[in-house]
Write a structure and sequence with these properties.
3-stranded antiparallel sheet; 15 helices; homodimer; alpha/beta; about 400 residues; 7-stranded mixed sheet
Chain lengths: ~400, ~400
């Protein structure tokens, strides 16, 4: 009687939620330090000190009526200006405050962008492995999901497969680098190739194909791996950003959409973004954190903590015989299950108190995601269990 | 090429936005204290002192990783528990934490509820005058807006008209009391009559008709006017609440949905709400303010400031000959324009530097809304201009 699709979405078995509940129960039985939970992508590094200091300063010095008041729907002008200037300084772009629309985080950035761009029945291409919620967001916008397969082992984009998936109905493409769940950063070579194909296809079909850059992990890269800024490669680009991972503020729901000013119809696409935000009920992004971002636009979390975790875990797992792409960013390892069925592997890991996420819903079967945004101690303590698990499979 | 509907929504002329821009320009010309802006419903009373104290305490005493981390999608359990207990204590209901779903404010509460309840083409009845965005939210959910006319002068619901508007396709009804833009609080008599009709029609059509109580102004009432709690009159009720006005935190985007546990299909409707929130990109409500609400669930702004403003303005305007329903809540006066065309009246008021909102888009023509959530000085200073305007029309 109510909306069945929404009911299905709300009641669907979620493996991550199940693991979460299991952890609580199991932790109570054997002690939470004995359960090695690697299932959740919740930042483990503290937000930069400036964040707390800035909140306290704002509370002390600003009028509370203004500080907690509505901003304009697209966001505080000064905040948008600070962000545009920061992006321009880092990537040589020419954004203005009117290229930026403040959002309640990455999911909002994506749902708003997709709603602004897609018409009913149009297609949106995603690159496997991909964040599972893309499917939900694209379908909410009335669109159809088209999955492009990755290259084996490297998990870079397979450009030939990508080209074959583009059709007259393709309206948008979502690219997520550094990637959840693989940790892979797409190379400049990959990106150039993708953008060349897109330009050619735009000409062939005579309409824009928008490239949505989903970049919550942009700042989480190691060993100075470059993360090319997509607007510099392709004019019809919209960047969906979030401070959830960059500043360890995932619960505060603060991010933005940046519409490339080089897009032919940039002003009108921005207006469609405003309309989509309005129709989805996003009145404005949280006001206190808009002010925080204005003052902390250059702040950074300590990425070395994640890098150290990655090095320990990647080093040990590959030594034990696990097969795994070397991740240059984000905080995930994408590990080949030791049997074909990732769910069966998940169950056997669970017997060793290791909790990882089977990745079939991410568009690649036979793999699990290990989120290493956890205390180093948990990783070190889990290594013998990972080793024992690998040895069991060798028997 | 992109979504034309979203573009139309984003680029549509908005009278309130235009007034906002005009104010800035005009204020620069003649001094902002000479422009009497009554167009915006932005609380003018400071948040209760506990809010700032609680934020500072939380920053000092909680782990920042937890404080700013994701909560579950439906919200922090303790926050939901505090809210359920507070509602139960005030209204004798039997809500549990699992009746409450935390949201990013009233607009999110409404878009999520409508998406959860409506199927494509189903109807949602709104009572004129109504908040203009209802139309946007209902249409985004695929629904059709059906407007029920008010009683003349009192602006209570015309129950005969309401009954005539219900059809087999009616899935939901939105009731907003205290009302934006009229300031009217629906009487218990009105509510009982509406609920009796709904019960009868549910039986007649053999399916639920959901009553959505949009209550951001619940706490802003004067002279102890009772605001009946709709769940106590009708089982198929969903309350959409926001702390924007109650605690003067409109920019922070924090509110909730409460699904009546007496609803026959309560658990499943709650799951549909969860699914709708997910599909619209609402990952969780802002985490810091969820904690603030948990600790400040009984806090209140000083409503007497609004009451004093109302008394001054209502007293003076009716003395000058304006016709206006006596508002018992919210912070709006709903004033009959002194000519048939509210836009023409708006223009003549503007010549006297008075800025009010013509209400045609609120479903009642020939009226303007005066938001008195402003500094008392602005009201006092504007009175001679209101008087002169009325006298001009008498000539």
């Amino acid at each position: 009687m109510f909306n069945e699709k929404m009911y299905a979405l709300g009641s669907k078995r979620s493996i991550i939620r199940e693991i979460f509940e299991y952890c609580k129960t199991r932790g109570a039985q054997i002690g939470s330090d004995k359960v090695f939970d690697f299932s959740i992508g919740n930042p483990s590094v503290e937000p930069p000190k400036e964040i707390e200091e800035t909140i306290c300063d704002l509370l002390k010095n600003e009028s509370p009526v203004l500080l907690h008041g509505y901003t304009s729907a697209q966001g505080d002008f000064g905040t948008r200006e600070a962000i545009a200037n920061d992006i321009n300084a880092r990537f040589g772009t020419s954004l203005t405050p009117n290229s930026i629309y403040m959002t309640c985080g990455a999911a909002a950035s994506l749902t708003i962008s997709l709603r602004a761009l897609l018409n009913s029945g149009e297609e949106c291409i995603v690159f496997a492995p991909f964040f599972t919620e893309y499917r939900v967001f694209i379908e909410n916008a009335g669109g159809k999901v088209v999955v492009s397969k990755p290259q084996e082992k490297t998990f870079q984009i397979d450009t030939a497969d990508f080209e074959s998936k583009i059709s007259e109905s393709t309206k948008a493409v979502i690219m997520n680098s550094p990637n959840n769940p693989s940790g892979v950063v797409y190379s400049e070579e990959t990106i150039s190739a993708v953008c060349e194909i897109l330009k050619r296809k735009e000409k062939e079909y005579g309409h824009p194909i928008y490239l949505i850059a989903d970049e919550p992990y942009r700042e989480l890269v190691f060993d100075e791996t470059p993360v090319p800024y997509l607007m510099n490669y392709y004019d019809d680009t919209i960047v969906c950003y979030s401070y959830s991972k960059a500043l360890s503020l995932p619960g505060e729901r603060i991010g933005y959409i940046a519409v490339s000013p080089k897009m032919e119809d940039s002003v009108n696409v921005y207006l469609a973004v405003c309309g989509a935000g309005r129709s989805l009920g996003y009145v404005c992004a949280p006001s206190l954190f808009q002010q925080v971002i204005k003052k902390c636009v250059g702040a950074k979390v300590d990425v070395n903590v994640y890098k150290e975790n990655r090095d320990i875990l990647y080093g040990a797992l590959t030594e034990y015989g696990y097969e795994c792409v070397h991740p240059d960013g984000a905080f995930y390892l994408f590990v080949k299950a030791l049997e074909d069925d990732a769910y069966k592997f998940f169950e056997r890991a669970k017997e060793k108190e290791i909790l990882v996420v089977p990745c079939d819903d991410f568009g690649v079967s036979g793999y699990v995601r290990i989120a290493y945004c956890v205390d180093k101690k948990r990783i070190v303590n889990a290594l013998p269990a990972f080793k024992a698990l690998a040895e069991e499979y060798k028997k």
